[in-house]
From TrEMBL:
One of its GO terms (biological process) is methylation. This is Ribosomal RNA small subunit methyltransferase G. Its EC number is 2.1.1.-. InterPro entries: rRNA_ssu_MeTfrase_G, SAM-dependent_MTases_sf. It comes from Frankia umida. It holds the Pfam family GidB.
């Protein structure tokens, strides 16, 4: 355990002004955050100081916090419906949940994070940014959060590099309402990842599934996002489903289902064509 971990419960994420790095604010930040630009600047400063000190952000990431992290996460607001209840799974330092909340005052965001020291950091950041009425923190794991009598169902679930798509879809499905939307931020290989996982995602109950690019023409590093909708028919099917029918109690798809799904679709799997590189 580091010194930062030992003191995370009592220290504040607000460093002395002399220690706050001067990070140039990209002009587009004003367009994206509007009246909340000052809060976005403060959040970026907290990531560069307390976030680095507590091991939530790598020290080499400081110079690219705006483009690679804050703005890159904020632009996924383009894919979030109005007035949505959003859960950010594996929130870590609050990415993408906090930039999303700052960019969209109409949405409510819950930051789901299993590690206590990270939850403490998130609570301190929320207080520092005066976001208590819009953003909350919950300590827990995604497989458990949407299950049982206390499980909550959300309209949108967002995740940033949490798990492979096949596994991620199975984990997040129980957390969504029928017709709820999964937004999974991925890297440059998103189309290849989706091609491999498409059969399993369909078998789990995701339809339609496509890829959207958020922030194109606005930020230097647009976000590639897998957008998948939880099929409404799944709600009725779940009531008849037993634990031996392919879905475990924790929402994870058993390997047999994914394997059979891949085999059944292998021969007829269509490939992306020109003009269709962003959807499947």
């Amino acid at each position: 355990m580091s010194d930062a971990d030992r003191t995370s419960g009592s220290s504040s994420p607000q460093p002395p002004p002399s220690e706050t790095p001067q990070l140039p604010v990209p002009p587009v930040a004003g367009e994206i955050f509007g009246e909340r630009l000052a809060q976005a600047i403060r959040y970026t400063e907290l990531l560069a100081t307390a976030g680095v000190e507590r091991g939530l952000i790598g020290p080499r990431e400081t110079d690219r916090l705006w483009q690679r992290h804050v703005l890159n996460c904020a632009v996924i607001a383009e894919a979030v419906p109005a007035d949505a209840d959003v859960v950010d799974v594996g929130s870590g330092a609050g990415l993408p949940g906090i930039p999303l909340a700052l960019a969209r005052s109409d949405v409510r965001v819950e930051l789901l994070e299993p590690m206590e020291r990270r939850c403490l950091f998130l609570q301190e950041v929320i207080a520092a940014l005066d976001l208590e009425s819009q953003v909350s923190v919950r300590r827990g794991r995604a497989p458990d959060a949407g299950i049982g009598p206390d499980g909550r169902r959300f309209g949108v679930v967002v995740a940033r590099a949490v798990a492979p798509l096949e596994r991620l879809g199975a984990i997040l499905l129980p957390m969504l309402q029928p017709d709820g939307v999964m937004l999974a931020m991925r890297g440059s290989r998103i189309l290849a990842e989706l091609q491999d996982a498409r059969g399993s995602l369909g078998a789990q109950g995701w339809h339609p599934v496509d890829v959207v690019v958020c922030g194109e023409g606005r930020v230097d590093e647009p976000s590639r996002v897998l957008r998948a909708v939880r099929a409404a028919e799944l709600a009725r099917a779940e009531s008849k489903k037993g634990r031996g029918d392919g879905e475990r109690h924790d929402g994870r798809q058993v390997r047999r289902t994914a394997r059979d799904s891949r085999r059944s679709r292998e021969a007829g799997r269509d490939r992306p064509t020109r003009g269709q590189s962003r959807s499947t």
